[in-house]
Amino acid sequence: MSKRIAIVEDDPAIRDNYASALQKQGYDVVTYSTRTQAESAFKQRLPDLAVIDIGLHDEIDGGFALCQQLRSLSNTLPIIFFTARDNDYDTICGLRMGADDYLTKDISLPHLLARIAALFRRTALLNQPQSPQDLIHTGDLKMDANRMTVSWKEAPIDLTVTEFWMLHAIAKYAGHVKSRQQLMDESKMVVDDTTITSHIKRIRKKFVETDAQFDRIETVYGMGYRWKSS
Fold first, then answer.
1. Does 126 or 102 have the greater pLDDT score?
2. CATH entry, 4-126, from 3.30.750.200, 3.40.50.150, 1.10.150.530, 3.40.50.2300
3. Strand pairing of 141-144 and 149-152?
């Protein structure tokens, strides 16, 4: 069965262009022009991935609200923000809302397709049989790659798909510095430096909300990140 992708975009030319490109790749594509249309449809059936514009008609931040609704329905459904607005504030806001990626509308079609394929590769791992390699237990951290669950000091930590695999790439090699390129390679991501930084900050924040003393994710300036085992 082909993957179902929802595109929520108020510009009909852009919406039709990307819908056509995705359909040619074999995806089942549904499109919506407003937040209310999309919200109504998502209550009936969730897509396998959503590409959402931030500004929808007269709603400047309508996409953010839609993302929050989707996250309340599924913690792991991949969500990509797709917008003409290119600034750090919107990027960080989008990731805080629970999006997995943030793309500007000048991105090439091959680049968009690569990011979508990368997100689907990661979610596909959920259906693989569990093996000892799926489990990470280092100190107070426990991760299950098959079920995509994370706990810290026995308390669950809710991470998005991208956040989970970024943390997994670091924690799997506790004590070793992982460069940004290695994080992308090992977690099957195609993202820029700003997006990686935003994801790391968001992961840290989620752990700190559970444990104010959390300090295990270390930034090694000029090199990358590592998980401190103690």
1. 102
2. 3.40.50.2300
3. antiparallel
